[in-house]
Amino acid sequence: MDLNAFWGLVESSAAGASGQDDRLERLTVALAALPAGEVVEFAVRLDEVRRRVDTWAHWHAADLICGGLCSDDGFFYFQAWLVGQGRAVFEAVASSPDALADLPHVRLLASRGGVHAWADEDWPDWEGLDYVAAEAFDGDLEAVLASRGLELLVSPDPGGESWDFASPVEISARIPRLGALFGKVA
Q1: Which residues form the DUF4240 domain (predicted)?
Q2: Which residue among 48, 75, 117, 161 is the one 20 to 30 A from 56 at the CA level?
């Protein structure tokens, strides 16, 4: 499965879906209808794509959006949510985490006055995306991946430079539009 097919599956799961659970169901059904090798390739492509946004810069942006409540699990699920936004959004944010300030959902979250005012379904996470390939695969997906010498990420392993996420100076320098949106710039 190439990246175009991967993104096609992810994006088509959103058409007419009533929420993330519905999208997961649609994606799982679509994957289960494919040959086993394609399901394995979907898992590999998801891992490859996710690694592109597994950086300290992206974690900083996610932490800012989530009001400082972005644990390693939270960031891992944020990465999956970002994939769920589709290829165009993903590519923009992969290039610049500050592009998150352009997303209508992020702008909505900023307008709500803090994470304590968010409903559970408002959180920018999509944990279930991590399990669709294993659920659609008829067999032990991890064993097949291991036999190919592949080990998928199961938690963040960010690259790049780390810094103080709470520093208004760092926010202003690194993610200024997002910082302004959430009132965190110097």
Answers
A1: 1-138
A2: 117
